């Protein structure tokens, strides 16, 4: 059966059940809104950054005195190289830069093979049916802190790291989680369900760079396989209800106190395999219950280098 | 009296050994996902690549001893079963000390509850039962089984009840039967929902509006399954006819809506005015 569009599904479901169609976006009644701006650096100075957005617009943003940047490590914003792809968290209607992540990427998948090089190691990752295979490099200098959080460094085990893309090569720099001790096909079962599903579910929210550039949305693990053409969907240790592409989620960052309404736009089959917890503010219940696009993650107050925040999820 | 009690435990022992063998083979054989045995003893005590062979070895060992006990009168098999349960007691004790998070695996994946005093007590009782068999007269197990009379029943039932009381698998099985996952979390078949839709009144009253008999899209949200069909409204404009079927219950609720190309719902044609009825 051909899958049409998430937007159309949302409209049709709302009409059939007699509910209003909710527009995606942040819930504005909770302090100053954060904005996410993405693009390629054209010029940068200590006080000003000029970027070329995906729409081809040139944006000139003011860099706040307290602003920080990350490109494999903490750097001064003025030291970012021209040509870097950046994600910027901005205040004041998106004009004042507060935080910059340059060439940041996240490698979430299953270890397929590991190179035998002595120093920098090449690792093949399987990132799910939609995202395919990916080759990453673990530099010798980062291997210690990555291996200590990934003790099962062998094919069949999950891997999650944050790094940078440099000259077309993906370099892992930071572990994004403590590796689950089980193989990716042996996800622990969810707790036994009782009478009905809770209206709000708590867990971990992460981000992924597998979304389209500047896309607002989320990937959700508990989708019917037949509806999404994703043979590995429908696995989670968190006891999630079934939803579909196009369903709206009310995503609340418990740590930052910010909420957004986001559509499900992708299959989060790989996120569902991680039965870990986020320690961003207290210990979250186990299980990754949603995977956000970088833009949505930043606008909800998340830090891309931390990799997660504690989340409370409701149906939007 | 003592001999009667000892012989009465034979069917109980055979029943448990056969059940353990079948459950272990079934668990090892349907382990479609590697790592599923990593929470079951005693496989967990060996290297990961030996998990399945260890489980199968244990199962076939039990089968060998059971068949030998039933078919022959060699004391080797009686001693073998006694030794098997005695070693099992030690292994469970070690498992409890070294891996308190894993189950005993005595009955495959049903025995996933962490090893406790009850599991240990059960193997102790089984060791005692099999040691009692050493005192039984020298005959094949089968001949003893066929010679069992109603006089042995109280002792056999007593032995079985003791073992059931010491089996944590009973609670696990009862919980699985009692707590059914809510509709929102259960995988449910699309074709069943489609069949229910096609016998509903909503379908029959809107079937004439549909341009095709096969849905162009179908998706699920919580306990609702949606089917979208191409159609024409009463005024002849192209619309999507969307049906929503509740996935729980024998006579589920079905809702329907007509949505235009612009995404706006189209109101259904009003019912014709009723004819006046003369008195």
TrEMBL record, chain A:
<protein>
    <submittedName>
        <fullName>Uncharacterized protein</fullName>
    </submittedName>
</protein>
Automatic annotation (TrEMBL), chain B:
<feature type="transmembrane region" description="Helical">
    <location>
        <begin position="76"/>
        <end position="93"/>
    </location>
</feature>
<keyword id="KW-0812">Transmembrane</keyword>
<dbReference type="GO" id="GO:0016020">
    <property type="term" value="C:membrane"/>
</dbReference>
<feature type="domain" description="Methylamine utilisation protein MauE">
    <location>
        <begin position="7"/>
        <end position="133"/>
    </location>
</feature>
<dbReference type="Pfam" id="PF07291">
    <property type="entry name" value="MauE"/>
</dbReference>
<keyword id="KW-1133">Transmembrane helix</keyword>
<protein>
    <recommendedName>
        <fullName>Methylamine utilisation protein MauE domain-containing protein</fullName>
    </recommendedName>
</protein>
<keyword id="KW-0472">Membrane</keyword>
<dbReference type="GO" id="GO:0030416">
    <property type="term" value="P:methylamine metabolic process"/>
</dbReference>
<dbReference type="InterPro" id="IPR009908">
    <property type="entry name" value="Methylamine_util_MauE"/>
</dbReference>
<feature type="transmembrane region" description="Helical">
    <location>
        <begin position="50"/>
        <end position="70"/>
    </location>
</feature>
<feature type="transmembrane region" description="Helical">
    <location>
        <begin position="6"/>
        <end position="29"/>
    </location>
</feature>
């Amino acid at each position: 059966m051909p899958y049409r569009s998430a937007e159309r599904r949302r409209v049709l479901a709302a009409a059939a059940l007699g509910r209003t169609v909710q527009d995606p976006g942040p819930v504005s009644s909770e302090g100053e809104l954060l904005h996410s701006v993405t693009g390629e650096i054209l010029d940068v100075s200590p006080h000003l950054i000029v970027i070329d957005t995906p729409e081809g617009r040139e944006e000139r943003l003011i860099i706040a005195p307290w602003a920080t940047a990350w490109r494999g490590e903490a750097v001064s914003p003025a030291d970012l190289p021209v040509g870097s792809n950046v994600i910027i968290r901005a205040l004041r209607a998106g004009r004042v830069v507060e935080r910059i992540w340059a060439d940041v990427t996240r490698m979430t998948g299953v270890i397929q093979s590991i190179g035998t090089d002595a120093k920098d190691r090449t690792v093949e990752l399987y990132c799910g049916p939609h995202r395919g295979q990916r080759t990453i490099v673990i530099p010798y200098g980062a291997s210690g802190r990555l291996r200590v959080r990934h003790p099962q460094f062998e094919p069949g085990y999950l891997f999650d790291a944050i790094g940078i893309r440099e000259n077309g090569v993906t370099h892992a720099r930071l572990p994004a989680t403590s590796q689950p001790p089980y193989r990716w096909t042996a996800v622990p079962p969810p707790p036994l369900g009782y009478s009905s599903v809770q209206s709000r579910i708590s867990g971990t929210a992460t981000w992924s760079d597998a979304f389209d550039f500047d896309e607002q949305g989320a990937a959700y693990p508990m989708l019917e396989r037949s509806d999404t053409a994703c043979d590995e969907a429908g696995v989670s240790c968190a006891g999630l209800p079934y939803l579909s592409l196009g369903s709206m989620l009310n995503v609340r960052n418990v740590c930052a106190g910010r909420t957004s309404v986001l559509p499900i736009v992708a299959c989060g089959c790989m996120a569902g395999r991680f039965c870990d917890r986020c320690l961003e503010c207290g210990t979250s219940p186990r299980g990754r219950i949603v995977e956000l696009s970088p833009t949505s993650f930043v606008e909800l107050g998340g830090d891309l280098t931390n990799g997660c925040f504690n989340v409370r999820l409701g149906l939007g | 009296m003592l001999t009667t009690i000892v012989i009465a435990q034979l069917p109980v022992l055979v029943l448990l050994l056969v059940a353990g063998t079948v459950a272990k083979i079934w668990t090892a054989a349907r382990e479609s996902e590697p790592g599923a045995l990593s929470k079951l003893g005693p496989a967990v005590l060996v290297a990961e690549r030996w998990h399945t062979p260890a489980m199968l070895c244990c199962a076939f060992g039990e089968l060998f001893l059971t068949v030998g006990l039933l078919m022959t009168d060699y004391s080797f098999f009686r001693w073998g079963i006694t030794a098997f349960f005695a070693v099992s007691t030690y292994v469970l004790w070690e498992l409890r000390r070294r891996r308190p998070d894993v189950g005993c695996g005595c009955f495959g994946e049903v025995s996933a509850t962490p090893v406790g005093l009850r599991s240990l007590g059960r193997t102790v009782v089984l060791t005692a039962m099999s040691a009692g068999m050493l005192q039984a007269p020298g005959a094949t197990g089968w001949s003893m089984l066929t010679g069992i009379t109603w006089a042995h029943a109280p002792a056999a039932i007593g032995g079985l009840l003791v073992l059931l009381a010491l089996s944590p698998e009973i609670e696990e099985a009862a919980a699985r039967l009692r707590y059914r996952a809510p509709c929102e979390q259960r995988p449910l078949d699309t074709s069943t929902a489609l069949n229910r839709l096609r016998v509903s009144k909503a379908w029959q009253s809107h079937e004439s509006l549909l341009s095709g008999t096969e849905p162009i899209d179908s998706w699920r949200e919580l306990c609702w399954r949606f089917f979208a069909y191409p159609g024409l409204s009463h005024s002849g404009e192209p619309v999507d006819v969307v049906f929503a079927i509740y996935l729980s219950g024998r006579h589920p609720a079905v809702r329907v809506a007509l949505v235009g190309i612009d995404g706006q719902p189209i109101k259904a044609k009003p019912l014709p005015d009723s004819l006046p009825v003369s008195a």
